[in-house]
């Protein structure tokens, strides 16, 4: 199989600063043959010149970390490697400036995470912070790489101690035992990354690349219910009504019945066009125009969402959301009614209740029913749209489960829908 034929997984590397995330990325790329040969050659040459007879990965990583300090940065975002079953892209890591924002807005949705924990330090503040964020943002699968095992002489007891400490944390946050795997590794020296480490005879589980290969395939947007947020509606003479939009999830074919919500109109798909050519079907990512029978141009509009009649888009009466306040000059209180931007719709919504204020980093509830929230706060809020709005639960259709709150020309907050009540 070539890389392109394999299913694709977005992987987040998370963990406390200095626990070895960058080193592990380098190691994974190196072991899978993704550090270009000329780079290795250059380092080999340099190593020889500096009196190092053998090429060592650890040395390369130290050189790279020096480069990083000098601001030359190996950019660890968007690195790719593959295993037998998948090809992986390493997405933005927590710690990068816009990580939380990118995750909430869906700019960098990870399918799985590798949590890197220094065996000599165990759970540290950012370990908790990142694990909590991952759970909130819907990353259910996690591989825990207990790293720097060389620093603790590959001590089995130490490994077990760290494992149980992390296990306790993950379960408390809501991870299920079957979705967490543990591997003792040394990113720097190697060991249980691509091959078993002879230093850990007590460990006979899969190595890290095998664990990555064992991850469950995420649900493809094509298997989710059809959702096409409508961008525009045209009326073309001789053809009829042609709504235009990007298929977010599911598939659409001619002759199917589709419903537009919140307009509540139903019609039959006559034909689908993409790049000025008729196509027999369209799926996630396709920008299409489709000719619809039985619906007039003025009966539907931008902000409507098309879906199949047997699983139509959800029009909400109210919903509960997790939000992060990015920028607001004063305080947000119940009654605040800014404009919510979700897919192609913009609807004024009232924050009717602030249920909880949370520490945005650890998810710890800081206050129940607070009077107000401010910039930097994370909160669970209840929201009432002032006009009908289609939005879905993040868990069910992530592509339609996120929104941005805008007011006074800027993005005040971003959020995701945790629960909702349908309009009768
Ligand atoms: P990050 O902040 O999580 O990206 O951590 P880095 O990858 O920059 O690593 C921090 C320090 O730990 C560096 O000096 C690495 O060389 C070192 N380090 C990383 N992995 C290992 C390991 O497996 N064993 C040892 N002994 N040191 C490691």
UniProtKB/TrEMBL annotation:
Reaction equation(s) it catalyzes: GTP + H2O = GDP + phosphate + H(+)
Coiled coil: none
Keyword Metal-binding: yes
UniProt binding sites for GTP: 15-22, 92-96, 147-150
Cellular location(s): Cytoplasm
GO molecular function list: GTP binding; GTPase activity; magnesium ion binding; translation elongation factor activity
Keyword terms: Cytoplasm, Elongation factor, GTP-binding, Hydrolase, Magnesium, Metal-binding, Nucleotide-binding, Protein biosynthesis
This enzyme's EC code(s): 3.6.5.3
Alphabetical list of Pfam families matching this protein: GTP-eEF1A_C, GTP_EFTU, GTP_EFTU_D2
Ranges of residues in domain Tr-type G: 6-222
Gene Ontology CC entries for this record: cytoplasm
Positions of Mg(2+) binding: 22
First-listed, main subcellular location of the protein, grouped into a coarse class: cytoplasm
Known function: GTP hydrolase that promotes the GTP-dependent binding of aminoacyl-tRNA to the A-site of ribosomes during protein biosynthesis.
Family note: Belongs to the TRAFAC class translation factor GTPase superfamily. Classic translation factor GTPase family. EF-Tu/EF-1A subfamily.
Name of the featured protein: Elongation factor 1-alpha
Classification of source organism: Archaea, Methanobacteriati, Methanobacteriota, Methanonatronarchaeia, Methanonatronarchaeales
Gene that this sequence comes from: tuf
